[in-house]
Design a protein that fits this description.
about 35% helix; TIM Barrel; globular; three-stranded antiparallel sheet; alpha/beta; Enolase-like, domain 1; binds magnesium ion; 16 strands; about 350 residues
Length: about 350
């Protein structure tokens, strides 16, 4: 008889405002919350499946429901668990990365709690405070985007979603209301090399810190040419899901955006972080639209990284948990609690 139990449920998280990127608009997201308990300690995890990667809540719950009762027995480390999840996926016949992330997160939270230590200490992080997070301004009417920037005045760095017909107009309008650094995320929206070059030429004069995923991930040859041309650092998001060769990625990008829902594993993500600088890559920790549960797990990884974009929990209305905090200067910081540092409300 297994003494571990796995529970999960799908929760529709409402966004504070509709969130638009070059691929479409969202008003709610269906995320799956996971608990792993031994009856004494309970660990929490969250899957934020994203259709860009062919995942949804149904696939996640189907995968979770397929895990046998004794799945967690004899698992001693996060590495062992990540391997076991991969093995199970091979038998299951489908890889659902966000489900892997949720299970591993919950187990690691349980593991830290069972040792009554914060995970960041158990993992030997230099401190519990990481980089400043950017705050995302979704696509909207120009005056609404200006108002969103003004309403988010407390944030020192904005991330602006582009990849539209009116990118230049948007940036010019935002520069009327702020001179703070902006990270641009085109979400694969510039579809020719010339269009991307033209935009970058313009953006280079606009106090832009970096450009995320300028072109579609499949256009890797053009992305390589773009890196040679670009005076601004380029960041791989859709181009980097976790298993790509870092050497190849570094031919087209300067930064990789690691998201737990793409890599499916904190343990594997940490290994990528450890290898990135040897491949001339900086790391950003990003997120999907997810609550404080998954974003606190992301915050743990950010402690070893240069860039953070962990604002998903700030964009939803009823965050079901308390977890990562922001300092006055909007640096990510993890509260001093055992495990991930999350408490459910
Ligand atoms: Mg992105």
């Amino acid at each position: 008889m297994s003494h571990f139990k796995l529970h999960f449920k799908t929760v529709d998280l409402k966004l504070d405002q509709p969130f638009t990127i070059s691929r479409g608009t969202k008003e709610t997201v269906s995320n799956v919350f996971v608990e792993v308990t031994d009856g004494t300690y309970t660990g929490y995890g969250e899957a934020a499946p994203n259709t860009r990667y062919n995942e949804d809540a149904e696939k996640v719950t189907h995968f979770l429901g397929s895990l046998p009762d004794n799945f967690f027995e004899e698992v001693k480390t996060g590495e062992e668990l990540a391997e076991k999840l991969d093995e199970h996926s091979r038998v299951f016949g489908q890889l659902v990365q966000s489900a892997h992330a949720a299970v591993e997160m919950a187990w690691l939270d349980w593991w830290g709690k069972s040792r009554q230590q914060p995970l960041w200490k158990l993992w030997g992080a230099p401190s519990s405070t990481g980089p400043v997070t950017s705050y995302t301004i979704g696509l909207d009417e120009i005056d609404v985007m200006q108002a969103k920037v003004e309403a988010a005045d407390e944030y020192p760095i904005y991330k602006v979603k582009l990849g539209t017909e009116r990118d230049r107009e948007i940036i010019e309008a935002l520069r009327e209301v702020t001179d703070k650094p902006i990270r641009v995320d085109a979400n694969e929206g510039w579809t020719t090399l010339n269009q991307a070059k033209e935009m970058i030429r313009f953006l280079a004069e606009q106090n832009i810190e970096l450009i995320e995923q300028p072109m579609p991930a499949r256009m890797i040859d053009d992305l390589r040419k773009l890196k040679k041309f670009s005076p601004l650092p380029l960041c791989a998001d859709e181009s980097f899901t976790g298993s790509e060769s870092l050497e190849e990625i570094s031919g087209a990008f300067d930064i990789i955006n690691i998201k737990l829902m793409k890599t499916g594993s904190l343990v594997k993500a940490k290994k990528v972080i450890d290898k990135a600088s040897a491949n001339d890559l900086q790391v950003m920790i990003g997120c999907m639209i997810e609550s404080s549960v998954a974003n606190t797990a992301g915050a743990l990884l950010s402690l070893w990284c240069k860039y953070t974009d962990l604002d998903g929990h700030l964009l939803i209305r009823d965050d079901p948990a308390d977890g990562l905090l922001l300092t006055k200067g909007k640096k990510i910081t993890i509260p001093d609690r055992p495990g991930l540092g999350v408490v459910m409300k």
